[in-house]
Amino acid sequence: MITACLTFAAVAALVTVVPGVDTMLVLRTTATRGRRTGLLAGVGVASGLLCWAAASAAGLTALLAASRIAFDVLRVAGACYLLWLGGRALWTARRKAHDAEEAPGADVSGAAALRIGLVSNLLNPKVGVFYMSMLPQFIPAGAPTFGTSMLFGVIHVAEVLLWLGLVVVATIAARGALSRPAVKRRLQQVTGVVFIGFGVRLAVER
């Protein structure tokens, strides 16, 4: 079991550090709203992963592989959400003043960051497919499927929290430059384009 956990941890770590929507979301949230909201966005992402792990352990994510309609519905919903995030970021970049919206440490902003991280992850069908296809390959013969799947899910969540925590720390360290109005607008524009790109890619993939 220890060998299986270590092997899965190595594979999951590689998947985790590949830049994607989650990393960009946490980076942007931290740069514009501060450490607390950035961390909450990361917790939202991790919560989504834990939900996917539980669904995978219960066999629910097999529906995504077996049903084209179920996968497409979730894929289109996720694409629309990413397009909305991207459009909102580009709209924010056009505004001349964002002080009221981006005040760090506000409770509403923290709750919004947590919710956005959670919803963004839950609407990504690729996460479900990853859990459904990868977790069973690492479960040792004779090991309890549900318990082992949840253990792997917790390992992945811990790695994601560590990685996103490092993203937050690195972003805060560079926040002096990132907090400049021109740089902040550019960051909003870049992340907006990236979100829209991810959304379009998710929408057209088969």
From TrEMBL:
Q: How does it sit in the membrane?
A: Multi-pass membrane protein
Q: Where in the cell is it found?
A: Cell membrane
Name the domain of life this protein comes from: Bacteria
Query: Which residue windows are transmembrane per the record?
Result: 44-66, 73-91, 150-174, 186-204
Q: Check the record and name the InterPro entries matching this protein.
A: LeuE-type
**Predominant place of localization:** membrane
Keywords noted in UniProt? Cell membrane, Membrane, Transmembrane, Transmembrane helix
Report the protein name in the record: LysE family translocator
* Organism whose genome encodes this protein: Actinomadura meridiana
